[in-house]
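Minutes, project huddle
Topic: does the predicted pose make sense with calcium ion bound?
PN asked that the exact inputs be recorded in the minutes so nobody has to dig through chat later. Recorded below.
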Amino acid sequence: MMVNVETLACCGLLLLSLGLCVHSVPITADRTKENVPDETLEPPQSAETGLHYDRYLREVIEYLEKDPHFREKLKNANLDDIKQGKLSKELDFVHHNLRTKLDELKREEMNRLRMLIKVKLDMEKDSTQKVNNRALLKYFEHLNHVNPDKFEVEDLERLIKSTMNDLEHFDKAHHEEFKKYEIMKEHERREHLKNMDEEDRKKEEQHYEELKKKHADHPKVNHPGSEDQLKEVWQEEDGLDPESFDAKTFFKIHDTNGDGFFDENELEALFTKELKKVYNSDNEEDDMVEMEEERLRMREHVMNEVDTNKDRLVSLSEFIDATKKAEFNKNDEWETLEQQAVYTEQELRAYEESLANEEKNINVKAVELQKQKEELDRKQEQLNAQKAELQKQRKVNQHQLYQETTSQCCPVTSSRMYQCQDTLSKTSPLCVLNECQSVCVLVCVRVFAFAIISIVF
Ligand SMILES: [Ca+2]
Ligand SMILES: [Ca+2]
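Predicted holo structure (tokens), as shared on screen:
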């Protein structure tokens, strides 16, 4: 799944809005005892960033920002101070109510990670792959798991370090995902061709080549961040005279949230016009996943050239400086994705081999499962046969018991006896037995009474 760039920009801003140089604000030892109003301890709102510890990160930063001293330090810290851990040390002066909340957040995060690892281990237990312990440990890099109950300076240091590191690798991971997507697409196309007869295959191949050609046939795409590219936006989107182009005015128009920086989202919005020259969602030949990859590459290219302090933001001064460079006036064409090889034939083969292995493993597993099923069916049949035999035996025993009881009790009641015998199979044997015994006793008493009466009279 492609991760939303907007969320990345949010996270980048979160850490990188941490501002400029640290001023030496006097710190008093009593600061942690200052009263923090209860309403400031409400749980902060969470938002997606794309990092797996997104919620934890956001909540920690938002709670820290509730502390006036830390907020001030955060506002005035620069990137180097943050990297060197100077900001993390300010945690010692955060109000104790907030520290308690941070401890809670950490405990929740630890529980979430434990659950996550458990699920992963359970899943891997059944698979043919070996459990990768190093990969599992990576899940804990953003906190100190040795001390699971307290949020300490080391936890903040680790959180900042992991976030920065993960953000730096975000684009790389994105490109890898895209490469996989393209390889899979080509693999599926080839598989589809395999199932066709010669004539249909030729037609399909021809159609594919036509689509490729159609996609590659587009107007010149300007180099992102070049004068030509910005002037097209200025003229066609902003409706301004290209001769009156002014970098500062351009910056103010397109800094849509007015924070004085171009974030990644604002930068990417500038490339929409160029991308529309190549991609149209109504066309069969244009893949919109490729368009998003193209957009990301454009943004990455501009950031590499313009963002000189590498804070993932373009300040006005960085932007103005870039417009003064010689590259700004170059009007060479941007090389679009279809002109580049996203993957090699070797990488495609490696993917197909891994698929074949996976299929093989699944088949082996399926055969094993089938065998287990057959064995279970066989055991079930045996059990059913045993059960039927037992029921039969039980019926015979009950019948014998009944006959013995009734013959001992009352031999004269044979008609009633048969009736009881018939009932035996339908009702509780004990109940029938009792009923038959009662009938026997009643008949015997009557015969005995009749004999007495005959003798007396
Ligand atoms: Ca902005
Ligand atoms: Ca910058």
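Observations noted during the meeting:
- The beta strands are 261-262, 314-315.
- The chain has three domains: 5-168, 171-343, 348-456.
No decisions taken; revisit at the next huddle.
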